[in-house]
Amino acid sequence: MPVRVLRSCPPRFRRAVLSALAAFATVAALVVGAGAPEAAAASSLPCDVYAAAGTPCVAAHSMVRALYSSYSGSLYQVQRASDGATANIGLLATGGYANAAAQNTFCAGTTCIITRIYDQSSKHNDLTVEGAGGAGAADVGSPADALPVTVGGHQVYGLEISAGMGYRNDATSGVATNGAAEGMYMVTSGTHVNGSCCFDYGNAETNNKDTGNGHMDAINFGTECWFSPCYGSGPWVQADLENGLFESNLGYSTNSSNTGTGAIPFVTALLKNNGQDHFALKWGNAQSGGLTTTYSGSEPSTSSGYSPMHQEGAIVLGTGGDNSNGSIGSFFEGVMTSGIPTDAADDTVQSNIVSVGYGGATGSTGTLGSASEISLKATTSCCTADYVRHQNNAGVLSAITSSSSALDKGDATWIVRPGLADSSCVSFESRNYPGDYLRHYNYKIYRQPMDGTTTFRQDATFCPTTGKSGTGTSFASYNYPTKYLRHYNYNLYIASDGGSNAWDSATSWTDDVSWVVSSPWAP
């Protein structure tokens, strides 16, 4: 999308018999019943459900799992920095989850970026790193290790988009054009968003430029309010139909209860458009519950060009149609369909998404081993009930007890990851904000999303050693090895034992930099 002069506000073959039975059961559930549809068979994955409902997937992209029960191919491709070699990352089993261990082995001792996201459908609409467009220079690939996550009980990786990153296919097959009907969903995150244009997944122009109203039909997710009023602080699921992010036919939200998803870590975002006179928006918590419809009505009436639509059939992920690439976002899985799926099919897909357990427990706690969930407790006599947590993006020391809120307990829980700059050290990923890590900046500690840069990797890497007080563990900064993770006046810093900064005070330094690695507060 172009920059505006004015702004209103600032992740093959199964036995034929089983596949047929699964399809038949899904069709029966969709056709027969009044009320909520019967759950699909356990082997029915999103594209099986949509195919059974008569709206097959024409694009199916996922970093984390198969979207067809019969799929056995690759999910994505990585390229390593050390020699430029590439590797395809596939599945642990047909219809299963990503083989993240293959990525870890291939990328060991170097860094990797994502260079291709494979389409699991028969249309082969793969996404590659996006080239230059009318509003942005050529993009770069996302770091392959930025967004570790547990899905289906397996450690896998999502796709974390920072500004200047994006993926696209301008020569697709089967995607809706010129007013044809389509549906789409993606699983994203409400904790990694901003108000810049435009974190999109869906139908876009084939020349990477803004070619006019109605030439896009994509899900947008972020905090950008294009048409006022927007209720709450978002992020909102909106429709990027070109030259506007639409919450209704009037542009702005006509639903005052639609205040956005809030900062929930996993969100299902869904758009359906008949291409002529109707579109609908839905969202749900990808960890629990069903879908909420925030709009279902006529096409935009703010100006001409939207009824009928004029889709061109390219697929974009992470940017606007003209490569407006200032947005950030997370992507785990998403599909596009031919035709508009039934509400019953959408509900069944949402149930399947919830069933895989996005963001579930890692299965390890209380140690500095990889993927262990922990809390870090202070050892200084003043503060033995206090723990490292994030609050308003900053690292702080805070009292946490059994009666603390679930939010506070989650903010004080960390997932141990191999050090982003050195795998012999550690990095601490936020439990509540997937893909965000503790890092230092100007010696102060913050919680921030991993952007793939060398500086971030170094700033977010800490090397454990025996506690300086003789108790617990101390954590030396990777790039400032004489400075250690310290609490001072209930804020967190990297600090040396004496120095010109207040937080370098030698008083109680050995205690302040010594931590007990404990069981996590969050379940």
From TrEMBL:
Domain spans labelled Alpha-L-arabinofuranosidase B arabinose-binding: 377-517
Database matches in Pfam families: AbfB, ArabFuran-catal
Keywords: Glycoprotein, Glycosidase, Hydrolase, Signal
InterPro entries xref list: A-L-arabinofuranosidase_B_cat, ABFB, AbfB_ABD, AbfB_ABD_sf, ConA-like_dom_sf, TAT_signal
Span of domain Alpha-L-arabinofuranosidase B catalytic: 46-358
PROSITE patterns: TAT
Stretch forming the signal peptide: 1-34
Record's keyword annotation contains Chloroplast: no
SUPFAM superfamilies in the cross-refs: AbfB domain (SSF110221), Concanavalin A-like lectins/glucanases (SSF49899)
Keyword Oxidoreductase tagged: no
Family that this chain belongs to: Belongs to the glycosyl hydrolase 54 family.
Name of protein: Alpha-L-arabinofuranosidase B
